[in-house]
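_Full entry_
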Amino acid sequence: MQLPTPQPQFAFFCNLPQYVKDPYKRFLENKLREHFDFKGVPISVYMRKK
């Protein structure tokens, strides 16, 4: 889900967000950059509880 902000921010919903490690968040951020061509744009990735 993309949040309504001026810069791209994405919220991912999971059962236990406190256990999602930073390397996986960076992986998701990099995949979003590749897929949507967000090179040089700040992206925020948030994990939220279902």
Q: What stands out?
A: The beta strands are 9-14, 44-49. The chain has a mean pLDDT of 91.
